[in-house]
Design a protein that fits this description.
Blueprint: H1 3-13, H2 15-41, H3 72-80, H4 86-90, H5 108-113, H6 119-143, H7 146-150, H8 156-185, H9 201-224, H10 228-251, H11 269-274, H12 278-304
Helix pairs in contact: 1-8, 2-8, 6-8, 6-9, 6-10, 8-9, 8-12, 9-10, 9-12
Length: 312
């Protein structure tokens, strides 16, 4: 069996989960662009127009103030409020790029790329990274399929390279599904200066690199263990520790160095799209380096370990 054959089999086993995740990202991108369009070109409705001055007419000597509309739509509008730029600043867009500018002049590309910092996107990407890595070796051993694969015969290095290739495809598909949602949105919503397809490549690369880095540091654990659950829990623990390190570094200046221990320190889809500086691409290279180093460590551990049954 070749690397491509094994990778295709691995992807085939998770094709429905991958398609569902990609469709969810595509749909989320459509909703995100609907929000951008609502902010940039929202037309004022009669309910949003300034209220008319109260009438000076007095009936029977009693003056009553003008009553506000009480229908359900008006109540929801007052509760929800008009879309504002603060949400995009919260997701990583520099304040000077959106605050104080007329809505129809705000940068569509940066506001779109900010979606890559959404918690739902993080959860899916991290889930795929930990899940794929923990299933790569430990999961196959639990299922009893690894010995069948390696008895064909297949070199252990070939099997591990196939796992790495499958991971690259998975995170590439997830990143491209977001970009596709942004591109298609131009056909449905009015947006200020819709970007070209090439403008989304830095975001796709950054998102894929984050997922690959998480996959990279979880894979050696899976290659050394017999339990998929244990490998996944350890990978999750490392991920949570990275989040905690980043929060800790921002709270205490004397411990800013702890942020460098977190993969999230090097994840900046908005920054790499906005600036594209050598520093931004260095951060991207660090994430990919973690993936490569994890793959190498996993290969060494997998090649030297004893496998149960007739796993080779």
């Amino acid at each position: 069996m070749t690397v491509l054959t094994i990778a295709r089999r691995q992807l085939g086993e998770t094709r429905w989960s991958l398609l569902f995740s990609a469709a969810a990202f595509f749909g989320l991108a459509l909703l995100w662009n609907w929000g951008i369009s609502e902010y940039q070109f929202r037309e004022e409705t009669p309910e949003e127009s300034p209220p008319a001055a109260p009438s000076a007419e007095v009936n029977d000597g009693d003056a009553s103030p003008t009553e506000e509309p009480t229908d359900d739509a008006s109540r929801r509008r007052r509760r929800r409020g008009r879309p504002g730029p603060q949400v995009y600043v919260a997701f990583g867009v520099p304040g000077d790029r959106v605050l104080g500018l007329p809505p129809d002049q705000t940068p569509t590309l940066l506001m779109q790329v900010a979606m890559a910092n959404h918690p739902l996107v993080f959860l899916v990407v991290l889930g795929w990274g930990i899940g794929r890595a923990s299933a790569a070796v430990a999961g196959e051993i639990e299922r009893g399929t690894l010995d069948l694969t390696l008895s064909r015969p297949v070199r252990r290095s070939t099997y591990m390279l196939a796992q790495l290739l499958a991971a690259v495809v998975v995170f590439g598909v997830l990143g491209l599904s977001i970009a596709a949602g942004h591109l298609v949105s131009d056909q449905f919503f009015r947006l200020n200066e819709p970007p070209s397809p090439a403008d989304y490549l830095p975001m796709v690369a950054s998102l894929a690199a984050l997922g690959l880095a998480v996959f990279g540091y979880t894979l050696p654990i899976s290659a050394s263990d017999l339990s998929r659950a244990r490998a996944g829990i350890i990978g999750l623990g490392i991920t949570l520790a990275g989040i905690a390190a980043l929060i800790f570094a921002r709270q205490y200046e004397d411990y800013e160095w702890t942020a460098d221990l977190s993969v999230f320190q090097y994840y900046a889809p908005v920054g790499i799209t906005l600036e594209g500086s050598s520093e931004q691409y260095t951060d991207l290279s660090i994430l990919l380096g973690i993936f490569a180093a994890g793959g190498l460590l996993a290969l060494l551990a997998f090649s030297r370990r004893d496998l149960p049954s007739n796993s080779g």
